[in-house]
Amino acid sequence: MSSYDLLDRQLTALLDSGDWLTNAAQTSAFIMQEVPRLNWVGFYLQRQPRMLSLGPFQGKPACHPIPFDKGVCGAAARSRQTQRVDDVHAVADHIACDSASRSELVVPVLDKDGELWGVLDLDSPDQGRFSEDDQAGIERLVATFRRLSGLSDA
């Protein structure tokens, strides 16, 4: 059993069925506390076309808003695919909210209709922090968040 199996069970028990705002706040805090070597975790929401707005998060004050054509969060929003970046300083259009961040994992969050609801963004001060296992585990936690927040049919 991976550590993400346990984290998924804990997150399932923590979240309040159907309340996306509370669940987003709880998910951010939970991941920040339980996943080591992170300096920022949070949601960016698509509240207007091709723009991400800051949502519930844990960490230093963050950049707001983020257009779809900028940074790792924008790339995840545009492509609707997880972005795992070992060295954010090598990304030409990286948005440096915190100069201490070195690597980033951003998972798109889709609603029931397959539309982009937002993204979950994890930053680390460690270069190369996120592995394939981390990506799969965080994607699983996002699936749990979606299910328990009423964003998926499952």
TrEMBL record:
<feature type="domain" description="GAF">
    <location>
        <begin position="2"/>
        <end position="149"/>
    </location>
</feature>
<dbReference type="GO" id="GO:0033745">
    <property type="term" value="F:L-methionine-(R)-S-oxide reductase activity"/>
</dbReference>
<dbReference type="GO" id="GO:0005829">
    <property type="term" value="C:cytosol"/>
</dbReference>
<protein>
    <submittedName>
        <fullName>GAF domain-containing protein</fullName>
    </submittedName>
</protein>
<dbReference type="InterPro" id="IPR003018">
    <property type="entry name" value="GAF"/>
</dbReference>
<dbReference type="Pfam" id="PF01590">
    <property type="entry name" value="GAF"/>
</dbReference>
<dbReference type="InterPro" id="IPR051330">
    <property type="entry name" value="Phosphatase_reg/MetRdx"/>
</dbReference>
<comment type="similarity">
    <text>Belongs to the free Met sulfoxide reductase family.</text>
</comment>
<dbReference type="InterPro" id="IPR029016">
    <property type="entry name" value="GAF-like_dom_sf"/>
</dbReference>
<dbReference type="InterPro" id="IPR000614">
    <property type="entry name" value="FRMsr_CS"/>
</dbReference>
